[in-house]
Structures are given as structure tokens and as C-alpha cells.
Amino acid sequence: MDQRIIAGIGNIYAQEALYHAKINPQRKIQEISKEKLALLHTKLQKILTLAIRKNGTTVSNYNHLDGKGDFQDFLAVYQKVFCPQKHSLKRIIVGGRGTYYCPRCQR
Length: 107
Fold this sequence. Notes:
The chain is of the alpha+beta class. It has helices spanning 11-20, 34-53, and strands at 90-94, 97-101.
């Protein structure tokens, strides 16, 4: 979530990418292997591509010129209670933002 490392990735997309790459959001970047970082990069690209195709994420009353986005229908962890594997999610604060993650899937 540190914008000094990579800027412009919103909270929703960062949480989703970390989940799909199986990375705990509390880990320091120095602790993450190059292989896991490469996987995170790949997952982030896929998530952003799908989100663009789906016109973004509408979680409350946000609209854009073409209407509402549909990416919220594909969210795995953001504002959820359970991950896709049916594990309970935790909500923590990372970088001053609420962050959802799965302690079992994301290590």
C-alpha cells in the first residue's frame, strides 16, 4: 500500500492482487521473494485488465459517464466476510486504510 513503492494502485485492487498472489499485506517488501513479486505483478495486471473491462468497481454510489462498473461482482476479499476458499477474513489497518485479507491463504 506504500505509494512510494508503486503509485496509483487503489486500495481495492491492491487487496485483490495481494490475495490472488497469496501475500499477507503486513509483510515487508524485503521479505517477499522475487518469484512472489513476479506473481504479484502478473495478478495485478490481470485484475486491472478485468476491472477496466468491467468499467471499474461500484461499491457505493459511484457512477461514471457510462454508468456503473461491474468489477465488484468479481471481488475476492474487499469488504467480504469470507474468501473464495470459505475462510474467515480479517480486517486490519495498513497504511491508514482498512484492508481485508485471509490469514490462511495469504502468508
